[in-house]
């Protein structure tokens, strides 16, 4: 959000290349960083602190020396791992043998959905997307879960009817039928009718996802209230 100039070395002319307006400056993204004292030894700001300090002081020679020290330490560490047979296992990246490149493990390449996606954020190095509604994956899982329960319920009812007709005398059919009665409208079960079959919850994953969505919804409402306060 600052001015950028082009310096012509041949004739010494200086030309304005970019001069952002006040509107552009107001739209600048807010920078969020981890506090220096909370960073680990290998996080960039802490790892390169001496190089950065030298650059800010205009000491190119010192910056080069500090950079060499870091790179030499990395070479020595790699050499020790080779000698000890220790395999380096990155936490957030994996090697693509096809392209011979390192790729981020949790990259999300799907198109941004402005109607459903709210924001992307990073937590513990993992990029995540906050969504307004259940994702297709969760909806499909929920549907499969319900269908499995219906199938089990139907199978149980059929077994009950078979036992009734084969094992019980005809004069006891009324009592048997009352103990093995089955709702006739099972096929019309909707997504929210899990309790109709006597199930308190669809499955552990569904319950976990629903609780997570409730937390996200509460966070979104809190952000909206904060935005309203800022506008006022």
From TrEMBL:
Residues 145-191 are annotated as: Disordered. Pfam families: Oxysterol_BP. It comes from the Eukaryota. Residues 167-188 have a biased composition (Polar residues). InterPro entries: OSBP_sf, Oxysterol-bd. One of its GO terms (molecular function) is lipid binding. This is Oxysterol-binding protein-related protein 5. The gene is OSBPL5.
């Amino acid at each position: 959000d600052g001015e950028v100039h082009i310096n012509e070395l041949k004739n010494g002319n200086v030309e304005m290349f970019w001069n952002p307006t006040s509107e552009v400056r107001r739209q600048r993204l807010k920078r969020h960083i981890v506090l220096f004292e909370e960073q680990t030894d290998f996080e960039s700001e802490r790892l390169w602190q001496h190089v950065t300090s030298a650059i800010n002081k205009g000491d190119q020679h010192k910056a080069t020396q500090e950079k060499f020290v870091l790179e030499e330490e990395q070479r020595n560490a790699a050499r020790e791992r080779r000698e000890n047979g220790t395999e380096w296992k990155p936490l957030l990246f994996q090697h693509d043998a096809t392209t011979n490149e390192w790729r981020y493990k949790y990259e999300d390449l799907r198109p941004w959905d402005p109607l459903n996606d709210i924001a992307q954020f990073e937590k513990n190095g993992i990029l995540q997307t906050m969504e307004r509604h259940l994702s297709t994956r969760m909806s499909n899982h929920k549907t499969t879960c319900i269908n499995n329960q219906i199938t089990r319920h139907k199978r149980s009812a059929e077994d009950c009817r078979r036992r009734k007709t084969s094992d019980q005398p005809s004069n006891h059919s009324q009592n048997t039928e009352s103990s093995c009665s089955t709702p006739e409208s099972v096929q019309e079960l909707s997504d929210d009718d899990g309790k109709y079959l006597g199930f308190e919850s669809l499955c552990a994953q569904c319950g976990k996802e629903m609780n997570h969505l409730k937390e996200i919804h509460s966070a979104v409402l809190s952000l909206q209230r904060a935005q309203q306060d800022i506008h006022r």
